[in-house]
Amino acid sequence: MFIIYGRKTANIHKSDHSQPCWSCKDFDLNVLIQITYFHFFFIPLMPTDKDVYIRCGQCGEHQDEPDLKKAYKKNTRAPFYLYTILILIGLFIGYAVIANINKQNEKAKFIAQPMTGDVYLIRSSKESKPIYYFLRVNTVSKDTVYLLHNVMAYYQTVSSFVPEDYFMKEVELAYPRNGLEQMLENGEINSIQRNYSISSGFDRLQ
Predict the structure, then answer these.
(1) Residue 165: count of CB within 10 angstroms of its CB
(2) 152 has which bridge partners?
(3) Containing H/E element for 144?
(4) Is 150 exposed, middle or buried (CB count within 10 Å of its CB: 0-12, 13-18, 19+)?
(5) 127 pLDDT band (50/70/90 cuts)?
(6) Helix, strand, or coil here: 1?
(7) What does each C-alpha distance from 84 to 5, 44, 89, 90, 190 come to in angstroms?
(8) Which residues make beta-bridge pairs with 54?
(9) Which tens digits make up the pLDDT trace of 73-90?
(10) Positive or negative, the Cα torsion across 52, 56, 59, 65?
């Protein structure tokens, strides 16, 4: 796979400046500002250097005006599109942060208002490497949530049962509501699923 990257130059400003040419004394100076930017697959990443070119529109002589060039450099901003990749990265990070906040808020809501059938993916760190298992809400009382444990253990995060897995009806665990809130706060409840599809296998009870 070829990775195309490098630097390119773009014209970002053109204007006339009323100042006498050092050669012909005509008041017709043309100002051109170019900017160099890095690109990745021809998509602008970020700008680097600006160059100012001043020439007479009448005789064509280039003008050596350091102060004027410095002023134009200072007052001319790089167009935002030259930051395209950085903007896209920022938007992606912002979306990921907002999505994570919404996910955490949703989990907190599900814990505060548990419903029969809710499925919790639990992360256990008692072993040398994390082990994951599922708990399914069976019934809910005022202060206690009764949960069914699944049969199998998983060694990575999963969102559904393997074909051999199911919840055990004879193994009901009682958790106080504040205990579940503490588990969520400690990161033990990895995810919560509600209104899941049949293909997840979470309706299998034996």
Answers:
(1) 18
(2) none
(3) strand 144-150
(4) buried
(5) low
(6) coil
(7) 14, 6, 9, 10, 35
(8) 31
(9) 999 999 999 999 999 999
(10) negative
How confident is the model over 99-125, as pLDDT tens digits? 999 999 999 999 999 999 999 999 987
193 phi/psi in degrees, rounded to 5: -120, 135
Q: Is 36 exposed, middle or buried (0-12, 13-18, 19+ CB in 10 A)?
A: middle
Structure tokens at 192: 């919560």
| Buried residues in 62-73 as b, exposed as e (16+ CB within 10 A) | ebebeebbeebe
Length of the chain: 206
7-10 contact pairs (CB < 8 A, 24+)? 7/36, 7/37, 7/38, 7/39, 7/48, 8/36, 8/37, 8/39, 8/42, 9/34, 9/35, 9/36, 9/37, 10/34, 10/35, 10/37, 10/82
The answer on pLDDT for 1 being more than 70 is no
Nearest to 28 by CA among 69, 58, 60: 58
**Cα 92 to chain centroid, rounded:** 3
Predicted confidence (pLDDT) at residue 2 exceeds the cutoff of 90: no
Task: Residue 108: count other Cβ atoms within 10 Å of its Cβ.
Answer: 14
Query: Does the pLDDT value for residue 130 go beyond 80?
Result: yes
106: tokens are: 């949703």
